[in-house]
């Protein structure tokens, strides 16, 4: 197709000088135009992926569905251009969405455990347990099981009692409870909130749920539900960012980070036993950027001991929190480059470039992340503004963990058709689609994010793009070679089933 393009360019060069040529200018214009369209179709992520006969048929099905949905003009705006909060119920009726739901999605590489489970389940399940309490301090509410440091006994009440008093409007009460951990139900949603206001609400969700997840029985039920929701969404491997904060149980016994990692490991093994197609989980130890050097030192030492106790399970380290409001990666660089641990620096998976502006030092975090040898970049939304760096990112094959709905809910971009990942896709900068904190914005799993990736970020792409994303999610994971072989076997089988199903629909439509 490049030869075709070159030939057309040649024709135009030959014809411009010679009015006498018989080829009409319109014909030349059209030929070159067609050559450009053709060349662009094969350009970018997934453009040159090999497709077998079934995949080609499935591609026709998906493209027909896609065209139909992007063109339907009975609304002002295609669903792909709408904010997730308005679009969710429309997305759920979409044929493309239902196809993507069915699609095996390989690995998801960017997910925070305490925001991963749907808020609906937390309300319907955990808050209905008899241990569940709510604590109220200075107009803020926190879920808890035992009295918290910041929350005296006389300000903590069993949720069950509160619900009894609201017997006539339990639905309203439950929705109010859910608003503590769901951005869609926050007041900031109504107005034109700034990014700082959105982050304040977002952090308040983590503060609200923390007390529940410190209680071992809740922590366990929550993580079983996490695996269930992602596996229901056809995800086979998860790399989970977690702080491994300590737990306590009903007898007041406490569990430190190593024990917590062990508890998680056991939950995952039980789940694999019960769902043999699910491959597993790896952990990335993540600490809030709101820490001192001393605390970072402690965290790096903790990482070292965890990775020694759980090789192949605890696989990396990250720092989280609103970037432009907190310490920059550069401010931590001396410690991160030469951590006080004998095994040298951990594998880093830094959040970086989850910003719109250029105001503080932290806005250059993507540069520091690459210099600190990050294996992947969380978001990399701002990488587009770094013309030297993105070449390096592509050359070093550092994958960007793209979380479309997260970027929208946290105010970086309103219309996802303008998300910079469209540029990354066109330039073959590797990306993976993932969901960050779906439980805090009324989503679950990762299919909603795939919907936006397919419909808004790469509107011209077909199944080749999806195939590339799905297999890249395995490629850029932290799986060992032996694990890769196993998950590849599972995935090949599931992918073939999906493709056959889509190909069959193609026949049914014709
Ligand atoms: C909560 O979820 C657990 C599974 O984690 C289930 O066994 C239990 O029945 C659920 N309880 C309620 C009240 O929904
Ligand atoms: C709760 O108890 C503290 C003392 O422990 C007291 O200062 C505070 O006023 C009490 N608050 C309420 C709401 O009763
Ligand atoms: C960060 O630290 C400041 C000062 O110690 C504190 O006021 C703030 O609540 C912390 N924020 C988060 C999100 O932890
Ligand atoms: C791969 O799968 C086989 C069979 O299920 C299992 O015995 C083996 O332990 C797996 N290997 C890894 C590294 O997960
Ligand atoms: C030390 C510091 O500046 N911490 C800030 C980190 O970001 C949060 C908002 O996400 C602020 O509340 C903290 O003050
Ligand atoms: Zn994140």
UniProtKB/TrEMBL annotation:
Official protein name in the record: Adenosine deaminase
Family of this protein: Belongs to the metallo-dependent hydrolases superfamily. Adenosine and AMP deaminases family. ADGF subfamily.
Alphabetized SUPFAM superfamilies for the sequence: Metallo-dependent hydrolases (SSF51556)
Primary location recorded for the protein, binned into one broad class: secreted
One GO biological process term: adenosine catabolic process
Domain Adenosine deaminase: 198-489
Cofactor names: Zn(2+)
Catalytic activity of the protein: adenosine + H2O + H(+) = inosine + NH4(+)
GO-annotated molecular function: adenosine deaminase activity; metal ion binding
Pfam families associated with the record: A_deaminase, A_deaminase_N
E.C. number: 3.5.4.4
Subcellular location: Secreted
Domain Adenosine/AMP deaminase N-terminal as annotated: residue spans: 10-100
Species annotation: Anopheles minimus
Coiled coil: none
Keyword check for Hydrolase: yes
Range of residues in the leader sequence: 1-20
Phylogenetic placement of the source organism: Eukaryota, Metazoa, Ecdysozoa, Arthropoda, Hexapoda
GO cellular component: extracellular space
Keywords: Hydrolase, Metal-binding, Secreted, Signal
């Amino acid at each position: 197709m490049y030869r075709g393009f070159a030939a057309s360019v040649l024709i135009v060069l030959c014809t411009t000088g010679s009015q006498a040529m018989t080829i009409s200018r319109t014909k030349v214009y059209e030929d070159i135009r067609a050559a450009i369209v053709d060349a662009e179709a094969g350009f970018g992520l997934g453009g040159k992926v090999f497709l077998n006969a079934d995949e080609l048929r499935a591609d026709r099905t998906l493209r027909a569905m896609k065209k139909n949905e992007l063109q339907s003009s009975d609304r002002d705006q295609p669903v792909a251009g709408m904010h997730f909060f308005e679009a969710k119920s429309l997305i759920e009726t979409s044929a493309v969405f239902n196809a993507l739901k069915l699609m095996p999605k390989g690995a998801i590489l960017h997910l925070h455990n305490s925001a991963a489970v749907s808020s609906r389940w937390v309300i319907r399940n955990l808050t209905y347990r008899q241990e569940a309490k709510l604590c109220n301090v200075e107009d803020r509410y926190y879920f808890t099981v035992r009295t918290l440091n910041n929350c005296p006994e006389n300000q903590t009440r069993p949720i069950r009692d509160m619900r009894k008093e609201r017997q006539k409007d339990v639905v309203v009460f439950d929705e109010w409870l859910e608003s503590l951990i769901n951005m869609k139900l926050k007041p900031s949603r109504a107005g034109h909130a700034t990014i700082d206001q959105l982050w304040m609400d977002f952090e308040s969700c983590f503060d609200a749920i923390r007390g529940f997840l410190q209680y071992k029985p809740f922590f366990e039920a929550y993580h079983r539900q996490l695996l269930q929701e992602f596996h229901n969404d056809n995800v086979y491997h998860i790399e989970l960012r977690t702080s491994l904060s300590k737990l306590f149980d009903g007898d007041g016994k406490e569990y430190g980070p190593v024990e917590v990692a062990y508890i998680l490991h056991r939950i995952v093994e039980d789940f694999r036993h019960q769902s043999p197609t699910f491959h597993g989980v790896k952990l990335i130890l993540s600490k809030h950027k709101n820490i001192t050097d001393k605390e970072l030192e402690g965290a790096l030492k903790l990482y070292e001991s965890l990775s020694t106790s759980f090789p192949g399970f605890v696989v990396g380290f990250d720092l989280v929190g609103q970037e432009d409001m907190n310490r920059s990666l550069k401010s931590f660089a001396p410690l991160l480059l030469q951590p006080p641990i004998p095994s040298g620096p951990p594998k880093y998976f830094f959040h970086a470039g989850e910003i719109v502006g250029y105001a503080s030092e932290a806005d250059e975090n993507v540069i520091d992340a690459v210099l600190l040898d990050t294996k992947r970049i969380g978001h990399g939304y701002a990488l587009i503004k770094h013309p030297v760096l993105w070449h390096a990112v592509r050359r070093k094959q550092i994958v960007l963990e793209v979380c479309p709905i997260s970027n929208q809910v946290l105010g970086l971009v309103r219309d996802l058709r303008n998300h910079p990942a469209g540029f990354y896709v066109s330039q073959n900068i590797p990306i993976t689609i993932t969901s960050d904190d779906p439980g805090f914005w009324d989503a679950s799993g990762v299919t909603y994010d795939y919907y936006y990736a397919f419909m808004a970020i790469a509107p011209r792409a077909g199944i080749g793009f999806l195939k590339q994303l799905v297999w890249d999610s395995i490629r850029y994971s932290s799986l060992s070679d032996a694990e890769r072989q196993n998950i590849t076997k599972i995935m090949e089988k599931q992918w073939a089933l999906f493709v056959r199903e889509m190909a069959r629909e193609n026949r049914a439509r014709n």
